Amino acid sequence: MKVFISGQKYFAERVLLMCVDEGLDVVGVCCPMGDKYIGRVANIRGIPIIPAGSLSADTMPRGVDLGITAHSYDYIGKRTRYMPRHGWIGYHPSLLPRHRGRSSIEWAIKMMDFCAGGTVFWLNAGIDRGDIAYQKMVFIDPKLFIMDVKKAARILWEDDLQQIGVDLLRDAVRDIARGDIRRQPQDKRFSTFEPCTDVKDVFTPDLLMIGCGQPADKQQT
């Protein structure tokens, strides 16, 4: 199965290496130029790189079976989403449809949720709104609630949610490769969307998405 990965940093590197270990043909990656993680590994392995910000249906390789986003903030437009035979999957560090948005881990801690988790979902035109493929829950250590929220979020990501993402994406590519396609629509009754925690003015909700720098149908992981 031929896959294309859009992502950055250490998580994307782990996803790339997982795909290689699974015997998948990684035909290209999209990442920031000079990325020291997935970009470095792609260069070592001779995998073509598309610079972040320039991924489109015109620049993406043909004949791709599956697109994967891994800590990607690149715009995945409609034509690009339809390029791979099976479409695109991504990883979001929350139990979708809860905590859609860029700062999902921080908000799980801010709201003192007793659990968090990760979701592999199918990208569509909405922000973290696509059908769910795989999910896994993890309890949040109560001590994180009294820490600085960004530090606590980093701990939860590094100790639990990052590995969950790699494991769920491994399950997904194994099943998709043998034709087992899993899709479960998100239950809108339980959906939440919170603003990026880097946005200072929380009293302008109509501008929050713009403040996060994400187009209306941008996807992340």
Report a brief summary of the structure.
Helix content is 31%, strand content 19%. The protein has helices at 9-21, 38-45, 78-81, 104-110, 149-177, 205-211, and strands at 2-7, 25-31, 49-51, 66-70, 88-92, 115-122, 132-139. It has a seven-stranded mixed sheet with strand order 3-2-1-4-5-6-7.
Molecular shape:
globular
CATH architecture level-2 label: 3-Layer(aba) Sandwich
Rg over C-alpha atoms, rounded to the nearest angstrom: 17 Å
- What is the H-and-E element order? EHEHEEHEHEEHH
Number of domains: 1
CATH superfamily: Formyl transferase, N-terminal domain
CATH T-level topology? Rossmann fold
Query: How many individual β-strands?
Result: 7
Structural category: alpha/beta
The termini sit apart by: 22 Å
Low-confidence stretches: 202-221
Q: Number of helix segments?
A: 6
| Range of helix content | 25-40%
How are the strands ordered across the major sheet?
3-2-1-4-5-6-7
Q: Kindly report the average pLDDT value.
A: 91
